Amino acid sequence: MALQNDASKTALLPMIICCALFFILGYITWANGALIPFVRLAFNLETDLQAFFILFASYIAYFVLALPSSWLLDKIGFKSGIVLSLFLIVIGALIILPAASNLSYVLFLVAIFVQASGMALLQTAINPYLSIIGPIESAAQRISIVGIFNKTAGIIVPFILGSILWHDYETISGKIMALEAGPEHDALLVELTERLHGPYIGVAIGVAILAVIVLVVKMPEVDVNKEEVAEEGTNTGRKSSIFQFPHLFLGSLAIFFCVAVEVMAGDIIGTYGGLLSLPPFFMKYGTAFTLGCMLIGYFIGIATIPRLITQQSALRICTLVGIAFTSISAFTSGMTSYIFVALLGVANSLMWPAIFPLGIKGLGRFTKVGSGIMVMGIAGGAIWPLVYGYLKDYVHVNFQLAFWLAVIPAYLYILYFSVKGHKVGK
């Protein structure tokens, strides 16, 4: 795909902005892993499945709003869309404050959904932007670079939230468990939930500052409506409907399963460590361990794609490694099982960077709506933790076997997409 001359000259500036935006995305998204065990106690929830609705509220927004986001971007452009997305994230962070003070889990989930709505718009804008500002063959490399910032934020957030939310956690949780329902019990819960105020006020201020920066800094607009991508035997200009690109919809389903396995490894690991009866340290910082492994994978991708291996080959290798590590985690115990769940971060790292450009490749003027369809696949992070929670809490499948049953089919589909699915219709 050819770059416009102006865009090619200023590619560094949008890359820097995108890195900052992905840092914000990572911080907010991966905070969910640290919040799950905390919220279960603070909002007096009965099961892990109820706590997993944090993930549902966060990721289902992508399914609901991805296509409206692509329509909006077509009207207002990438830059204005990014500013609007950051504004929504600020609003969501501020709604968390009354939700915490009033012990309203429903309002808390609404706040998470509003934040995620902003992130859905942001994802719909910046993923095709990254793919288009350079050659499509190296898009996975650029997405891996911003992914480093995303996962670095995810590594940092458990330590920040851990120091605030988990301070004297065991003492307060012991008091809460010992008390009957009543004013004193509720007062302790409010004391616990109001610890959310500081982190989310900080998020609101930081994101607002970034929105102002994006507003005043000149960023090149890439007009995908003028892009013409001609592949062998295919002329995008002759296509009249998005439904004439079956590889796009197969790619969106691949994103669904990609995000599903990312969330299972990154957000569920804290709960998983608790079920393995590991010390609280491994519950607090499990997300950081998984994302640290993802960082390793990103560096591997930056070093090898496309000079040593193609995006498709990287995707195939990652899925096979994921299947192997999931099986080892399911059929071992204790720390060994936990370590291999964390190591899934390496397997998952290059999936999104490889799947997204393969899914939107060759769409030309349909790129914005195609990006929206791809982003809808992020709903996998909403659905799959609930599938796992249902198997574990209601079907009473052993939690390790339930993890294996949930994750393996996802990897198998991604393997299909890497081998054949991305070629369908081309």
Question: TL;DR of this structure?
Answer:
The chain is mostly helical and 426 residues long. The protein has helices at 5-9, 12-42, 48-51, 53-101, 105-132, 139-165, 169-178, 183-193, 197-216, 246-266, 269-275, 280-284, 286-304, 311-330, 334-348, 351-360, 367-376, 380-393, 399-419, and strands at 230-231, 234-235.
Radius of gyration equals: 21 Å
Q: Can you identify the CATH superfamily?
A: MFS general substrate transporter like domains
The ordered H/E elements are: HHHHHHHHHEEHHHHHHHHHH
Please give the order of strands in the largest beta sheet: 1-2
Instruction: Return the CATH topology.
Output: Growth Hormone, Chain: A
Mean pLDDT: 84
Estimated helix fraction: over 70%
> Strand pairing plus helix content: what structural class?
mainly alpha
**Secondary-structure arrangement, i.e. CATH architecture:** Up-down Bundle
- Largest beta-sheet details: 2 strands, antiparallel
* Cα separation of the termini: 16 Å
The tally of helices reads: 19
Which ranges are low-confidence, i.e. pLDDT below 50, for 5 or more consecutive residues?
A: 1-10, 227-234
Shape descriptor: globular
Give the count of structural domains.
1
The tally of strands reads 2
Which terms summarize this structure?
single chain; 426 residues; mainly alpha; Growth Hormone, Chain: A; two-stranded antiparallel sheet; 19 helices; 1% strand; globular; disordered N terminus
